[in-house]
# Entry
Amino acid sequence: MTNVSIIGIGATNVGEHWDTSLRHLAWYAVEEALDNAATTDIDALYVGNMLAGSLSHQDHLGALIADFSGLRGIEAVTVEAADASGGAAIRQAVLAVKSGMVQTALVVGVEKVTDQSGSTPVAALSTAMDADYEAIHGVTPAALAALVMRRYMYEYGRELVDFAGFSVNAHANGSSNPKAMFRNRLKAERFASGPVIADPVSLFDAAPLGDGAAAIIVTSSDRAMDMVPKPVQVSGSALATDRIGLHDRQNLLWLDAAESSARLALSQAGVTTEEIDVFELHDSFTIMAALSLEASGFAEAGQGWQLAQDGQIGRDGSIPISTFGGLKARGNPVGATGVFQVVEVVKQLRDEAGECQVAGAKVGMAQNLGGTGATAVTHVLRIRD
Amino acid sequence: MTNVSIIGIGATNVGEHWDTSLRHLAWYAVEEALDNAATTDIDALYVGNMLAGSLSHQDHLGALIADFSGLRGIEAVTVEAADASGGAAIRQAVLAVKSGMVQTALVVGVEKVTDQSGSTPVAALSTAMDADYEAIHGVTPAALAALVMRRYMYEYGRELVDFAGFSVNAHANGSSNPKAMFRNRLKAERFASGPVIADPVSLFDAAPLGDGAAAIIVTSSDRAMDMVPKPVQVSGSALATDRIGLHDRQNLLWLDAAESSARLALSQAGVTTEEIDVFELHDSFTIMAALSLEASGFAEAGQGWQLAQDGQIGRDGSIPISTFGGLKARGNPVGATGVFQVVEVVKQLRDEAGECQVAGAKVGMAQNLGGTGATAVTHVLRIRD
# Structure
């Protein structure tokens, strides 16, 4: 089976790009990735996007972005799996290269939430849920996270303040990332007094939506070695799903899809969680960061928060997460987020993370969640010494 | 490289399914395909859909349909390429099986245009166009087809009545298909007096939007032979794009993406157009049928209409098209259409097409277009004697 490596990365900063169109955002990331890989020889484009149809009246992003990026004519489609669209698009690119039918594939995750000609971001985001059984009652993604967080606090006897470590870490890391949406630090003692969004989820639990685009280029590992000095191998790639409605899940506090995709990706890569030097997880809410750590095997059930409280998730800790600020501080450009995560892991493994660098990182993992964990995409990346 | 074969097919009828939800529609097609393949051992699901986010407030169909179909936990994503979403989803499934990472993949194309809680079908369909340069001016897909048709008539000196053969053939074939949306015949002499939608496109040129779902199951050809009596091999699979905006195209009357995807798929299959026994093309408008025949190599530029006028597109003709009614009479369930096309070709090759049967069909082709041809997906299928 063909091995796949990443040969180019690019990303815009995350924030409110009022003066930049959806296609321009995508192009900025694509241009940087093409430059980074020093190639324009692309066979296929996979676009990770969730909201453009609703917010910008623009579907059919494959043809649009291929055309606008000077890659007219190539194979190009959009891959959608709610907020896991970016990771899912990377997964398709990996499959395409492994198939032998596509030599070099470009992935761009793009989202422009400041386009609101068609809908509002919260209404559009709610299409990630079960429309007939959840969204119809007016519940929002934050409200679902709140239900899960409340249950976690009840089951495991935790307080709101126990989740502070996640946001404190994310903001500390984001303050070193020039492309982060929020570069302010957050004090642990302020965490519990954040304005409430959906009790107990506060502003300091929830990641901000932002515009942004990120891109990667993948090709066979054999070709990659000849093309760039530091190819990063995609050693594990897995996508799994779970019951979409929270009411259908056997255990509200266990992310089945995160567990199975992480287990499979780690097994493909032949590494254990102890060997992961950096983990970009989906901290859309602090509770999701805790559950992702638990389901992926970094902590026992009910113990994810402890890693944060003990400082183990910092750059010098046992499992650094959100090293560029995560969704919480770098910002959450929804369908682009999964691509940002992989771009960030690649920077870590190439030793190009600047002030965000985790010293000596050789093996990294990225996990992108969609719809409160109903979809999970896990990639394990490594660089050869 | 792994060869891929189709081992199961299923489809609902196309029409107004007011009493059936989006997920139920998908399930009916999935259930039939699972029964047809006599397996429930599915590793991945690729959903072809364009409009659910806009019309039904429901994205994230991968997790939703996997869950609802009793396939909880499997890899599942949505693939979107406007009205070519169904064909694009099949393309992803083919790549996935060829990659060796997915053994058996399910594709379901589903669309429910009678859900209109979020938008209207015409507004939602218009997201296939360039939002900033085309749709913003109020142009609709029918209006774009009209521009192209008017130009065709001017350049090649044709009259409206020259396109009649396409719709007459589609309705004649649809009248033999119990699952068709329209089963009435259309008289050639009535064609030119159809109510005008966007001059010169009339009601008799334009395919009706309908609800529907279709599904196929693919696996490696080696496994397929052991699983079902009549596996149908996917001998060619190609997706290409073109400039999304009509104003950007070099030649308004030539579908570059249809040409390159057809050429590539035929070359992969090692067959010529003369060897194609049945061709399910994208007759969303009669002009698109003519252009598809021309770009795919079945007629010279400006001559596609002649095949229809001469009766060559009928079941006994040199190149039978729209054998179950095509988009025009079977109905156009947008993101599901590309899967319907492949289901119909499989029925032809298996000699299971009933009254719609093309005698002795062994090699078939399906071509799904998105956004007035900005995306084209071509599959060549064959059955061994």
